[in-house]
């Protein structure tokens, strides 16, 4: 780690020396987003109401539209790399692993992800198929990232955090936006968005996007991970009267993602690789009605339908989701505010068998009923506030309560201290309860006490699993030390119970005349526990009027604890890899009139693989340092922007995750790449 930290520190010093000269102070100031405005940034996802960041008793990071524009990122996961406390790894050209506070994997199951309040968390595998979700970056207003449990408001699966992607009001995107991207990895990407209005109360935005991307690189095989994604949709915002509004948004999409899958076979070499394409399509329609009250209260009703179809060699499914959510907030007795709500989600799926998976039953409809209440009290005006509440949920696995208690202490308008105790819950996925999965064939091993035949590992779900639980303890400090310096610090200590791993049972001999073999049955088991603790730091410094620095640091320690059991407990089901240290340093400079230079330096510590045996720590992915650079020219009047972006400039390529995910889809490496982008608004 020391060698890589030295490389990171040297590169960071170069950035400082290159742009730390006082001569830059005479250039155009960076006025897009001041640090004072950063403290006053309004956040919705932490308490289900808009409130300033300085008054939010939670670990929050906001990615603004300006951060998105100047990042050089072309996907949501790449943007999330700037957030402390998040672990982001690219598995191949179209798949990512994104988690908060550990347990990272392709389907990181303890992070709830939403777009405009619509969950994109898949109940099939408890995670996000990131390859299917490519919202238009220019239409995003901000991305709110909450680290820590949010189940008391958002319900199950918001265990280690929440990501809420919030798109712009269509009144803010009037006119036409055209953007195009071409580069060494992208075949081509093009976006068209047009906003219009009729009358003074109706605004509409229409959009269409195509992304075509080439294969990445790998040292072990020839990648086949190219992909394309095509989508079109709309957003309508209508003011029904002075205090009532309606928002309707919808989209349809389709795409194809390449991948290399390892398929098990009973004879030597007991597995073979195939190039496979995952084909997917779907769409959603969401409507939100909102009415403001004179006392600051609010009624909100939201409903959506979401349909997804996905087919590859591992999964073949259709999932339909219907969701309705009501919320009411009102004030009482001057210093008190109460928010309560009711919700219902109905999920219907059809899961066809594939060469690797079978679900029993293959069709299922299940309901989730919920209710929540949260009280906020100002104990001492402008000094001390307390928030407490809980959420009740009734689902397929039973009844769960998710309480939380939060305190906010503001000794000065520029300083705030907060502390929180929360309980989070993760519902078992459909796969963990109902799948039958042909995982692999293990070759005969020398010295085996039984006759040497291959072993087929068959994984089966268990329908009576309990929900995973988390008891989280957090404390944080947020301050604007100087008009040019913002600082945010969070500590956490988490205790997990009933984590779902696997339990290996006795071998079963199959007396096949041609190919005798054993079956190693393994069943889902919710008996693993874990503890984690960590530190997350975010800081912003307006070093010069035209130069801004953003620093993020993460320390994470995760300990897995297996239960005493007569059977062998497997934790391959758990995502146990996470870097202990991560550093991100971003520099944004206006180097001359209409010219911008952005540099992004990142260090990510090694991934430690403890999946096979938690007592033996093995380095599965080496640490790496990477540098991205963006040079852009903006036309002063015609809203035209030309940008040249280079990513992973320090290395030809590097790995970010182990050789394959749980489903034996081979990972690739992230190559150096360069692309150009044209953006024109008129």
Automatic annotation (TrEMBL):
<keyword id="KW-0675">Receptor</keyword>
<keyword id="KW-0798">TonB box</keyword>
<keyword id="KW-0732">Signal</keyword>
<dbReference type="InterPro" id="IPR036942">
    <property type="entry name" value="Beta-barrel_TonB_sf"/>
</dbReference>
<feature type="domain" description="TonB-dependent receptor-like beta-barrel">
    <location>
        <begin position="280"/>
        <end position="649"/>
    </location>
</feature>
<dbReference type="InterPro" id="IPR012910">
    <property type="entry name" value="Plug_dom"/>
</dbReference>
<feature type="domain" description="TonB-dependent receptor plug">
    <location>
        <begin position="53"/>
        <end position="162"/>
    </location>
</feature>
<protein>
    <submittedName>
        <fullName>TonB-dependent receptor</fullName>
    </submittedName>
</protein>
<keyword id="KW-0812">Transmembrane</keyword>
<dbReference type="InterPro" id="IPR037066">
    <property type="entry name" value="Plug_dom_sf"/>
</dbReference>
<dbReference type="InterPro" id="IPR000531">
    <property type="entry name" value="Beta-barrel_TonB"/>
</dbReference>
<keyword id="KW-1134">Transmembrane beta strand</keyword>
<comment type="similarity">
    <text>Belongs to the TonB-dependent receptor family.</text>
</comment>
<keyword id="KW-0472">Membrane</keyword>
<keyword id="KW-0813">Transport</keyword>
<dbReference type="Pfam" id="PF07715">
    <property type="entry name" value="Plug"/>
</dbReference>
<feature type="signal peptide">
    <location>
        <begin position="1"/>
        <end position="25"/>
    </location>
</feature>
<keyword id="KW-0998">Cell outer membrane</keyword>
<dbReference type="InterPro" id="IPR039426">
    <property type="entry name" value="TonB-dep_rcpt-like"/>
</dbReference>
<dbReference type="Pfam" id="PF00593">
    <property type="entry name" value="TonB_dep_Rec_b-barrel"/>
</dbReference>
């Amino acid at each position: 780690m020391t060698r890589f930290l030295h490389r990171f520190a040297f590169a960071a010093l170069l950035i400082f020396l290159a742009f730390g000269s006082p001569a830059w102070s005479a250039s155009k100031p960076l006025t897009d987003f001041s640090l004072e405005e950063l403290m006053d940034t309004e956040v919705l996802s932490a308490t289900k109401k808009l409130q300033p960041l300085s008054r939010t008793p939670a670990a929050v990071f906001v990615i603004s539209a300006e951060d998105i524009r100047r990042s050089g990122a072309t996907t949501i996961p790449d943007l999330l790399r700037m957030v402390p406390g998040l672990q982001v790894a690219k598995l191949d050209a179209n798949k990512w692993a994104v988690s908060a506070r550990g347990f990272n994997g392709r389907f990181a199951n303890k992070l709830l992800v939403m777009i405009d309040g619509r969950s994109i968390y898949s109940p099939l595998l408890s995670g996000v198929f990131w390859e299917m979700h490519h919202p238009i970056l220019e239409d995003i207003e901000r991305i709110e990232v909450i680290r820590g449990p949010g189940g008391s408001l958002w319900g199950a699966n918001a265990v280690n955090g929440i990501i809420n992607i919030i798109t712009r009001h269509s009144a803010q995107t009037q006119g036409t936006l055209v953007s195009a991207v071409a580069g060494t990895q992208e075949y081509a990407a093009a976006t068209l968005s047009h906003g219009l209005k009729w009358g003074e109360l109706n605004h509409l935005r229409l959009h269409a996007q195509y992304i075509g991307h080439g294969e990445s690189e790998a040292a072990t095989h020839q990648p086949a991970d190219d992909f394309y994604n095509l989508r079109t949709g709309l957003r309508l915002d209508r003011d029904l009267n002075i205090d009532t509004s309606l928002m309707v948004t919808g989209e349809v999409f389709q795409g194809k993602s390449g991948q290399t899958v390892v398929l098990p076979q009973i004879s030597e070499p007991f597995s073979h690789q195939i190039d496979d394409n995952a084909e997917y399509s779907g769409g959603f329609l969401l409507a939100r009605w909102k009415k403001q009250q004179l006392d600051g209260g609010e009624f909100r009703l939201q409903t959506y339908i979401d349909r997804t179809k996905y087919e590859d060699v591992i999964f073949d499914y259709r999932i339909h989701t219907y969701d309705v959510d009501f919320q009411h907030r009102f004030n009482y007795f001057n210093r008190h505010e109460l928010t309560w709500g009711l919700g219902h989600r109905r999920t219907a799926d059809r899961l066809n068998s594939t060469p690797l998976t079978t679900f029993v039953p293959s069709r299922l409809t299940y309901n989730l009923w919920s209710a929540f209440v949260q009280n906020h009290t100002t104990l001492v005006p402008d000094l001390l506030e307390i928030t407490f509440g809980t959420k009740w949920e009734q689902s397929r696995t039973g009844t769960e309560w998710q309480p939380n208690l939060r305190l906010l202490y503001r000794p000065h308008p520029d300083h705030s201290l907060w502390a929180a105790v929360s309980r989070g819950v993760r519902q078992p996925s459909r796969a963990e309860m109902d799948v039958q999965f042909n995982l692999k064939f293990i070759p005969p091993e020398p010295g085996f006490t039984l006759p040497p035949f291959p072993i087929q590992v068959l994984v089966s779900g268990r329908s009576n699993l309990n929900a995973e639980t988390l008891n989280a303890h957090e404390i944080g400090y947020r301050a604007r030390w100087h008009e040019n310096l913002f600082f945010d610090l969070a500590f956490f200590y988490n205790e997990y119970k009933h984590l779902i791993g696997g339990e290996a049972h006795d071998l079963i001999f199959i007396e096949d005349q041609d190919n005798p073999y054993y079956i190693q049955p393994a069943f889902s088991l919710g008996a693993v526990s874990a503890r984690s603790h960590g530190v997350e730091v975010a800081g912003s410094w307006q070093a010069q009027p035209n130069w801004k620095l953003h620093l993020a640091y993460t320390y994470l320690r995760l300990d897995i604890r297996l239960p005493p059991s007569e059977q062998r407990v497997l934790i391959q089901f758990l995502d146990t890899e996470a870097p202990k240290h991560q550093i991100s340093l971003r520099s944004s400079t206006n180097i001359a009139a209409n010219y911008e230079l952005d540099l992004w330096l990142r260090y990510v510590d090694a991934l430690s693989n403890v999946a096979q045996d938690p007592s033996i720590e093995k380095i599965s992915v080496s640490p790496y340092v990477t540098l991205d650079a963006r040079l852009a020219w903006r036309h002063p009047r015609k809203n035209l922007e030309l940008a040249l972006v280079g990513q992973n400039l320090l290395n030809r390529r590097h790995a970010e995750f182990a050789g394959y995910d749980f489903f034996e889809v081979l990972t690739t490496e992230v190559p150096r790449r360069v692309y150009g982008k044209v953006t024109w608004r008129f």
